[in-house]
Amino acid sequence: MTRKKVAVYVRVSTKDQSVGMQLNDLERYSKERGLTVYKVYEDNGVSGTKETRPALDELMNDARKRKFDVVLVWRFDRFARSTKHLVTALYEFRNLGIDFISYQENIDTSSPLGEAIFTIISAMSKLERDIIAERVKGGLRKARASGKRLGRPKNDVDTDKVIEYRKQNKSIRQIASEMNLSKGAVQRTLEMCS
């Protein structure tokens, strides 16, 4: 039986921190489980809030090329700080046939319990998105009810000036530039006057 290849991802937020403890735990874990470390992907001094990070981007590119079978991280928050980012990555790994293991949380998506936890995390992420969407809709309803105008403010277009510029054979782009308007506003004005 061939040994599964594992991509080890470690990250620290500041340059004065060390990934040593994470690496020791993950390398020992890999050895005990009979996993072959394909590569260690290490982001030093990079915030977890950034979805694009040099080593993480390289890991994702290698995953898409199916260079390994498992992604191993010390904790979820070393990999992703937002539920959305984590769920997106886990879905991609699942579609690629790559398992995901979080050492500290003891979660392995190849196990039934890990799969259940993944489903719960996905549901929580959807709930979070739905709550945010409801808040936004509620805020818009309240703003409309209090008489606030929503959207971009309309430019007051001097129709006579637009027509005058057009008679001088100026292009819509030139008119828009001279009057500090969008090309669409000039176009609509000309269509209304024709």
UniProtKB/TrEMBL annotation:
Residues 5-147 form the Resolvase/invertase-type recombinase catalytic domain. InterPro entries: Recombinase_CS, Resolv_N, Resolvase-like_N_sf, SSR_resolvase. This is Site-specific recombinase. It comes from the Bacteria. One of its GO terms (biological process) is DNA integration. It comes from Candidatus Scalindua japonica. The keyword DNA-binding applies. GO terms for molecular function: DNA binding; DNA strand exchange activity. The active site is at S13. Keywords: DNA integration, DNA recombination, DNA-binding. Coiled coil: none annotated. SMART domains: Resolvase.
